[in-house]
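If you are new to this repository, start here. Below is one unmodified record pulled from the training split, so you can see the exact layout before writing a loader.
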Amino acid sequence: MAQLDPKRAVTMMKALRDLTSDANGNQRVVFTPTWAKAVDFFKAELAKLSIPVRIDVAGNLWAELAGKRPESVVIGGHLDSVPNGGWLDGCWNVIAGLEVLRAIQARGVPPVTVKLVSWCDEEGARFGRSLYGSSAFSGHLDAAQIARLVDREGITYADAAKAYGIDVFKAPQATAEQKGVLAYLELHIEQGPVLESLGLPLGAVLGTVGVERNLITFKGQAAHSGSTPMNVRKDAFRAAGKMAQEIYAIAERHRGVCTIGSCTTKPGIVTSVVEECVITLDQRHLDDAPLAAMWKEAREAAQRFAKEGNVEVSFADLWRIEPILFHPELTAFCEQAITEAVGKSHRLPSGPLHDAAEVCRAGIPTQMLFVQSLRGISHNKIEDTKEADLEASVVALAKLAEKTIPWALARL
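And here is the target side for that same chain:
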């Protein structure tokens, strides 16, 4: 593609890293001064293209290269990070996307409008609710619920957003941005070890896995840890502890993944048998039926362990999203683009969720492209990708856009 300069994108990415990182990693947590620096940096780079840039009601940043028709193909990503995060997670999407947008502009007026979006608060690192901006776009945001969320300092989501000119209660109006969107493309680092293990720089993403996230509470009886015989204890932690091994067996049977992410005990002192133990269980699979079976087996196991330990167990839903498969024709285009860029492609699912999942839920043809992550590490300051692979990913994204634009036009 004429005027495409992948090295320029890498240089820009390094400048953003230097602006928003410290010794512990990148600090672009949403609604913080460092995040605002990243947004301003991105706006300044977009200003060089002399195209309209605006912020929608949910806080998503849009750049719009007008085409011969108003209908659009959108390239997207996000600028926010987790605390002490990596330098590429999320923001490489929009930096690479800006480079592709620049190249499309250099070729003249495109047949359809091309937009670049930086979604607001993809990570959910501060308030625990991921995909805020893209959920507002897709129509899957409960504004009243998210407004009440509180961070560790006791600041509500509504107040944190208001400080940056965003009214969370108006965020659901961002569904208006769906009008005329014909396709959505997103580049992301893999954040896992698959591509590196295969010796491949790039992969075409099949879709995002479904997530079943639940709270399991075991209720026993507090008793003195010195005077209570082992055989009469009602130890809530004993039952919960058995779940730690069981989830591995469940995951292996169904070829999914299961994680106990937190464990809280009460009264939480060394001189008392555990009266209550609460664990969070995260289960993921690309197919809905195995995902449902995994949760069913986890509940059955928890009930069995509770009975064995003479304790009670209860369950509460935390969150669920169904498996989301991307558009098969766009996946084929993605494979072709990767093959043209680096010679070989590989199809793989995404274990992490991304904004692309919410866009796809809105019924918009969607496709993601992964670039290899060294050591499979992300959400960590050592997150990294070879520069040659980063450059190749810009080329592949540009080729994917080249294939998608005429396809989208033909669908009108």
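Two things worth knowing about this chain: The longest strand covers residues 210-219. The chain has a mean pLDDT of 96.
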